[in-house]
């Protein structure tokens, strides 16, 4: 069984290395591979609802590109990619089905065209090439190898050049230059988890392009616990899980210390020493209950004051939302934010340079028949995508 898996990996690597094949030249003459918005209209130009139930289920009916195999040569600006991994959980597993569930919850996002009224943008028709790359192949049998697969899969997408040029700053008109360490203009990746362990390999990938990164983390839990406290660390691999990945990311120098922040925190602690360790890991905190005193505007201000104008990685655990609104998650905690409050806060990040993002811990098996959690996750990512579409990932040339 193991040998068959290794053969499959070798074939996968070979296909990536050799690029496209002759099949890519077989498309009809008038075939449009990347429409700027998905096709949901009849021949008369009318919007048709039936199209959202047709074909394979990609995020928001975006074009599907086999980014990691036969279409690895195809450029894009923003890509959705799944990381179906959940063997780093401490309570309820099931997030390996999160990518499929989130895609199902996103079916109707573009039914009416996809215009985001509060942010005044249609991210699906903004001139950017936005695609769904499917899922990274992830083994459920070996956590160490799975984490390596996620890092390599994410890095294979992140280190490409984008489809669209940076252009000029929308406010000043000045020419923009890339903010990456290598001077390249790289695409943005939105990862569909998966449990939160996936963020460690993703941050390793991010570091390869941007160096230490500021992190905005929405979660009911700190996720900076020392392995000796969270899980007991009976082995080196068991020490890496969905409650310790930020501890390891800090130890590896992946996080820009002092400019990162948690939001929606409301977990119990082993002791107040957990906060001391969280401080040492480079994070500031916003407790979920603070929304009652400072409101969404105050929370947005705290976040923006903390990260400043640094490049940012955004990580969203669905359990930042109260289980009344999003019950399908691995470690639910009552007393969280509503879906409306989280979406409002995300819109308040407009203008920040979010280099990539994720949403994690969606476990559809625990959802209601109304698909509350998967729909909430998809709508949250709609706000993230809209913010990305409005803000070019570059900085203005001074002088």
UniProtKB/TrEMBL annotation:
GO terms for biological process: putrescine biosynthetic process from arginine, via agmatine; urea metabolic process. Its EC number is 3.5.3.11. It catalyses: agmatine + H2O = urea + putrescine. Binds 2 manganese ions per subunit. Its cofactor is Mn(2+). Mn(2+) binds at residues 196, 219, 221, 223, 317, 319. Keywords: Hydrolase, Manganese, Metal-binding, Signal. Residues 1-17 form the signal peptide. The keyword Hydrolase applies. Pfam families: Arginase. The keyword Calcium does not apply. GO terms for molecular function: agmatinase activity; metal ion binding. InterPro entries: Ureohydrolase, Ureohydrolase_dom_sf, Ureohydrolase_Mn_BS. PANTHER family: AGMATINASE 1-RELATED, ARGINASE/AGMATINASE. Belongs to the arginase family. This is agmatinase. It comes from Laccaria bicolor (strain S238N-H82 / ATCC MYA-4686) (Bicoloured deceiver).
